[in-house]
Prior knowledge:
Order of helices and strands: EHHEEEEEEH
Distance between the termini: 33 Å
Oligomer: single chain
Amino acid sequence: MPRFEITSTVPVARERVWAQVSTMAGVNAELWPIVMTYPREVAALNAAQAVMGQPMFRSWVLLFGVLPIDRHELTLVSVDPPAGFHEDSRSWLQRRWIHIRTLEEAPGGCRITDCVEFQPRLPGVGRLLLPVFRAVFANRHRYLRRHFGSP
């Protein structure tokens, strides 16, 4: 399975970072120009609302908030506020989508690390999607550094 990792450090406490990145509004702010739909009752990645290992909800993945590009079924394996989460989901395009985000205390702030592995449903597509997904997560981290500031 293709895999990549990206890390950024921001000059705020990880509790403050968690308060933003654990909400669906925060996820969509990071992802823009891609957004994910979600039920109102699931506004945050909350361990109390989810049954770990079972789908939490289905989401349309929309380019510019209007053009459907995928249908994602979000499944959380673990949520450990404010340390991060482990997602093991699937979608129409991905047989498996593993996203692990960790928030670690760092000198003067918080280190945010995203580790992503994916298995496309179509053989050979992983090579094409790897640079696309890396770019999406690089954009997410640029947003986080702009939003929280860089050390």
